[in-house]
Specification:
Number of strands: 17
Largest sheet: 7 strands, mixed
Shape: globular
Strand content: 25-35%
Distance between the termini: 16 Å
Structural class: alpha/beta
Order of helices and strands: EEEHEEEHEEEHHEHEHEEHEHEHEHE
Radius of gyration: 19 Å
Bound molecules: zinc ion
Length: 315
Amino acid sequence: MKALVHGGKKNVAWVDVPDPEPGPGEEILDVLVAGVCGTDLGAVRSGRPPIAAGMVLGHEFVGRRRRDGALVTANPILSCGQCRACREGRPHLCQRREVLGVHRPGAFAQSIVVPANNIRTTGDLALAKAAMVEPIATALHAWRLSPMPKTNVAILGAGPIGMSLLHVLKAFAIEDITVTDIAVERQALASACGADQVSAKASSVYEVVIDTVGAVETRRDAVECVRAGGTAVLVGLHSPNLSVAGGMVVAGEKTIRGSFAYTPDEFDEAIDLAATLDTRWLSSVPFDRSAEMFARMLAGSADPASVKVHFEIAT
Ligand SMILES: [Zn+2]
Ligand SMILES: [Zn+2]
């Protein structure tokens, strides 16, 4: 079958790989649509997270279960069920966590093998929306880690997680949402999808600031622009570093909170949230153009209005 794999030299390759064989407790799914995530780009661009050369990338997808033809997606996080994090109800923080498309072959392929327990049916959800369940779950989790704000919220970055967060906040009827992005095309999309204010950079004071970029600058902005006593939620992973003025954190009693992935319950909840997603910021390319599109995204030369790029693998 065809697959888009990590090339190992800051590149990807569209290659033939053997068909996967399901083991005990696993199902084989034929992938229909799969989305490119910052995780895929970060792994290839800078080795974060580290992914072996030859690994099939991709963890956001919708497919058809071969056994019965049902349309399904899957929670890509496989956890041990036994470590402390798992026992505490946080399997996404499992010490022996494995992620499809990172540690095991992923969804940029004509078929994928997934533990049956991780599979969720998506019913009559449109394919493009069903492929958005995973990023919406990531956004939902970041939102759940914020203290429920009564006033204003800022989302830094109108990328896939920022736009998913905007969708989640609108679904929870948050009334004063600012979205920042350096690209005017993305500011326009955020406005069209219901942001109350858009700008290139955060400049006011907010009750909650969620940084979906993860650059040193946006993390600093998140902490600087959150009110005294407020919470900055860090979900973006662009840079490995955090550099903020400690005095401001102490004297302002600010909370800095990391957010990673989602719980299984949040993944399930995201299936419902995906139904009402405004899809104008999604775009798609045929699978045989996936390597070329991925290279453009790596080079930063893709259309900024194509916030989320999907590969159409089959219909
Ligand atoms: Zn993702
Ligand atoms: Zn575990």
